[in-house]
Amino acid sequence: MFKTLGLFATSQCPDTSCNRPRCFFAHGENIRTSSAPGVVSGPSKARAKGGNSKNSVGGGSKDGAVLNAARGVSDVPLIPRSEAAQSLVNKVTTPLPKTGRSPAKPAPRPADPITPGSPQPQSLPTNLKNSPQPWADRQKGLQTLFTQYSKLYSTIPAESVQLARRSALEQENETSAASANLKAYKSAIHHAAVSISRRPHPDSVAHPSIGTVRESRIAFAEAEKRRASRLTRDRVERYCLPVKQFPIWRYPDPTDSSLGSGGGEDPSAEGTTQTCSRCKIPFSVLSVNPESRFGECRFHYGRTAPELIEGRRKWIHSCCKRERGEVGCEDGVHVFTDGEDDAALARRVGYRNVKQVRDGEETEGVDVVGMDCEMICTTAGISLGRVTVVDEEGAVLLDELVRQTVPILDLNTRFSGIRPGELDSAVMDLEAVRAAACAFIGHNTIIVGHGLENDLRALRLIHDKVIDTAVVFPHDKGPPFRRALRDMLVVDASHQSIADRIWSVKEKLGYFIQDRTADLGHSSAVDARAALEVLKWKVREDAI
User: Per the domain annotation, does 273 fall within a domain?
Assistant: First the structure.
């Protein structure tokens, strides 16, 4: 058997007539004591089998005394059993003396070992009063997130530590706020850590993998949305307006060779009699002191639409809510337009195609561009005041004001957005601006816009690859009727209810277009981007 420790070897056996062959307690008059109080010097090797045995500790025999002396046990009087038991009880129940110090608290659980020199996350504040999770658990969750973010951002070492700390803190705060209890918090931290570990490693701070789980999910969705709606030539060619439909939608005929030859014989109509396009009154075109003639024309700038008033259908102007035929609500000067008479427009400034503008050079331009033009009123009729060309991402390629070569009658600020004095700094005339636009518009470039026939006429450009959003989303009355870009309706065929299938453009794009035209005017850049965004929405919907 195993060797005993002899912890009771210095204590007198309570049984006065002990007959145990191997008793744990000491026997006899001399009981072994250690040199220091409370320290046991060793186990007893001799146990008495009887009162007169020579191996007995008691009995007073010579051999027992010698053995006790060898063990270092001093002579102690025997204690009766009852007194020994009572002494043991008193010793156990006696209270400890008060020292004035509170009992020691249990030692805290040691923290996980930290590799020397390794970056650590920023500690959470200790006064988390409204947090449903303990501080220690939140700090542990923060460490878990920081470890995963550090691995994720290891490919951008210059900013990995700071990015990991910021992302870990933001993610931990979001998780804590969304978790009602500690169990839900730990589960959410685990799922977040797994989600972070599965992200692709970023190559820059603009990568969709940067940020919290929610931020990264939104960024990846936006990236997928951009990929699905990318306007490449192959994906949007089917939306191009067929050349045979150009006359239906009143576009300049690209097959008419007479438009591209000559032009510019009659650049200004000054001194001729024209009919005012606003008030329909004949007038003589003059450029002398137009400010003094202000008020000679009273007109309505808003369009008319039918309304049911007092049981009768009436045509009401949108600008002042007056009935058609009433005196105008706006004062100005007489202006005119050559309308859609391409031959008359060519006599002002000749038409040119891309090849002619580039002097016969056939170079590839941008695959898809958005274009919008703003027009003003001059002695040549409706003239180009500003042109904007953007790429399929909406970045501006060209945005120029046009220097006029004929006198200006009205800037038409309400719709053009061009204010007095702005054209004074313009350096390019119409031909120079057209050449600058054709630096990006090639023979096969697809031009996207809304009501592009007016823009092409103002720019005097002949082009056969166009996508008109007014045609892609047609008016319910058919051509030549068109919806305004701000009022255009988008139809989603995935919904069965007609009411659920129709939204306005501002609801689909998330912002207003052509808003506050009364005081700010149109913005050609905004309109060009809006036309592109509407087409992107169409491409995404048709791909589903």
Answer: no
Residue 366 and residue 481 in one domain: yes
In a domain, 419, yes or no: yes
Q: Which residue in this structure is represented by tokens 């930290």?
A: 114
Element housing 466 (H / E):
strand 466-468
- Please state the rounded mean pLDDT for residues 402-424: 93
What does pLDDT average to over the chain? 79
Question: Which amino acid, residue 427?
Answer: V
Residue-number span of the structural domain to which 145 is assigned: 135-228
pLDDT tens digit sequence for 118-155: 666 667 666 566 778 898 999 999 999 999 999 999 99
Q: How confident is the model at residue 256 (pLDDT cuts 50, 70, 90)?
A: confident
Report field, pTM of the whole predicted structure over 0.70: no
pLDDT digits (tens, 9 = 90+) for 59-74: 444 444 443 444 444 4
- Residue 130's contacts (CB-CB under 8 Å, 6 or more residues apart) are none
Within-domain flag for 235:
no
What span, in angstroms and rounded, lies between the C-alpha atoms of 211 and 149?
9
When pLDDT is cut at 50, 70 and 90, the band that residue 433 belongs to is very high
Secondary structure string (H, E, C) spanning 11-64: CECCCCCCCCCCCCCECCCEEECCCCCCCCCCCCCCCCCCCCCCCCCCCCCHHH
Alpha carbon of residue 175 to chain centroid? 18
CA distance from start to end of the chain: 83
Q: Are the beta carbons of 406 and 378 closer than 8 angstroms?
A: yes
Question: How far is it, in rounded angstroms, from Cα 355 to Cα 363?
Answer: 9
**Residue type at 491?**
V
Q: How many of the other CB atoms lie within 10 Å of CB of 221? A: 11
Residues 355 and 454 in one domain: yes
CATH of the domain at 517: 3.30.420.10
SS3 409: strand
Q: At residue 7, what are phi and psi to the nearest 5 degrees?
A: -70, -20
H or E segment and range at residue 66:
helix 62-71
Query: How many domains is the chain partitioned into structurally?
Result: 4
Q: Is the pLDDT of residue 342 over 50?
A: yes
* Residue 1 pLDDT grade (very low, low, confident, very high; cuts 50, 70, 90): low
Is residue 498 in some structural domain?
yes
